[in-house]
TrEMBL record:
Domain of life of the organism encoding this protein: Bacteria
Subcellular location: Cell membrane
Primary location group: membrane
PANTHER family with a match to the protein in the record: INNER MEMBRANE PROTEIN YPHA-RELATED, OXIDOREDUCTASE CATD-RELATED
Name assigned to this protein: DoxX family protein
UniProt lineage: Bacteria, Bacillati, Bacillota, Bacilli, Bacillales
Length: 134
């Protein structure tokens, strides 16, 4: 296993853990509350449910390393949506009351890397696709 494979695996697992945490946070707040907040900022409320499930399940899938490219692409879309709808107006570093979009940009860079990188040998993706191509 190369250094790149190790770093790719660490990046995938850490990003997965972070999105599991974000998804769980939405469930703990109550999806109804998240829906109301989405409505209050002009985002259709029902999207709160999709975002929460994508973050939670997507994070778990990233940790396991399955459907990594597809999950990472969905997360990029969610992150771009979060920047455009809530964080762009407060700036890169935020305004003292709300965080800026610097963390979202970091997550986007990691997710884009996972979309284009070779499959890590320590992932279910690698095991599944290796067997199919053999």
């Amino acid at each position: 296993m190369t250094k790149i494979n190790v770093v790719s695996t660490i990046a995938r697992i850490v990003l997965g853990i972070l999105f599991v945490a974000h998804g769980l946070d939405k469930f703990q707040m109550g999806l109804g509350n998240v829906e109301a907040w989405f409505d209050s900022i002009g985002v259709p409320g029902p999207l709160a449910y999709a975002v929460a499930y994508i973050e939670l399940v997507g994070g778990i899938l990233l940790i396991a390393g399955i459907f990594t490219r597809y999950v990472a692409a969905l997360l990029v879309i969610i992150l771009i949506g979060a920047i455009i709808t809530t964080k762009l107006s407060v700036g890169l570093l935020g305004n003292g009351q709300m965080a800026g979009y610097e963390l979202d940009l970091s997550f986007i860079v990691i997710a884009v890397y996972l979309i284009v990188a070779d499959r890590s040998p320590l992932s279910l993706d690698h095991m599944l696709w290796r067997k199919r191509s053999a």
